[in-house]
């Protein structure tokens, strides 16, 4: 019995030593449906370790001086060693103006150092060994991560950056038009 425990602990220790949170890389893969305060997004995930990883929970909290500004929630998936997969999720904002600021900043049309993001990842190595980590991002870093401009060392990566930029530009134009319509109504008292 003691030998089994020692061997199990040794095996877990070896896999933990071979695996670290930097073995997962994220990059934007596309934008889906957009609402007035959120959007569906796709992200590529690369596992370039020798260990299969089951991502159980991938979330990000957007925050600034005024408190919580939004969240990103991605559905989990199992990533086999040396593979690339896709996660689907939703990026929600507390209000229209926060979303507009985020998109404007992502496209380089505005700067806002107030917004930051904290990424929480809960996973299991080999499907049984729990592992989690937290990583903080500035708004430009987080935007690069979810919209496809982040560094990528895996062998395969479809570059969706220009496509996502076009999608964001269309969203920005629609939001500017909505902002103009609603601001006109406010000025006219209607």
Gist?
The protein has four helices and eight strands; from the N terminus they run H-E-E-E-E-E-E-H-E-E-H-H. By secondary structure, the chain is an alpha+beta fold. The radius of gyration is 20 Å and the shape is elongated.
Description of the structure:
The chain is α+β, with helices and mostly antiparallel strands and 190 residues long. Strands 1, 2, 3, 4, 5, 6, 7 and 8 form an eight-stranded antiparallel β-sheet that branches. It starts with a helix and ends with a helix. Helix 2 (96-106) packs across helix 4 (161-187). Helix content is 34%, strand content 40%. The longest helix has 27 residues, at 161-187. It is built from four helices and eight strands, in the order αββββββαββαα.
How many strand segments? 8
Q: Specify the number of helices.
A: 4
What is the chain-wise order of helices and strands? Answer: HEEEEEEHEEHH
Backbone CA Rg: 20 Å
Strand content: 35-45%
Pairing-aware structural class of the strands and helices?
alpha+beta
């Amino acid at each position: 019995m003691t030998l089994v425990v020692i061997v199990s602990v040794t095996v877990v220790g070896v896999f933990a030593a071979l695996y670290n949170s930097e073995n997962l890389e994220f990059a934007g893969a596309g934008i889906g449906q957009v609402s007035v305060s959120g959007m569906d997004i796709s992200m590529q995930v690369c596992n370039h370790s020798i260990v299969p990883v089951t991502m159980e929970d991938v979330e990000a909290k957007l925050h600034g001086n005024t408190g919580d500004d939004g969240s990103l929630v991605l559905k989990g998936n199992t990533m086999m060693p040396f593979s690339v997969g896709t996660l689907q999720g939703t990026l929600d904002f507390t209000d229209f103006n926060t979303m507009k600021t985020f998109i404007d900043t992502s496209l380089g049309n505005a700067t806002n150092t107030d917004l930051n993001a904290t990424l929480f990842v809960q996973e299991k190595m080999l499907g049984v060994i729990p592992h989690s980590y937290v990583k903080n991002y500035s708004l430009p870093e987080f935007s690069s991560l979810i919209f496809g401009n982040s560094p990528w060392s895996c062998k395969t990566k479809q570059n969706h950056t220009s496509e996502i930029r076009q999608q964001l530009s269309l969203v920005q134009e629609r939001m500017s038009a909505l902002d103009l319509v609603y601001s006109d109504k406010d000025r006219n008292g209607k």
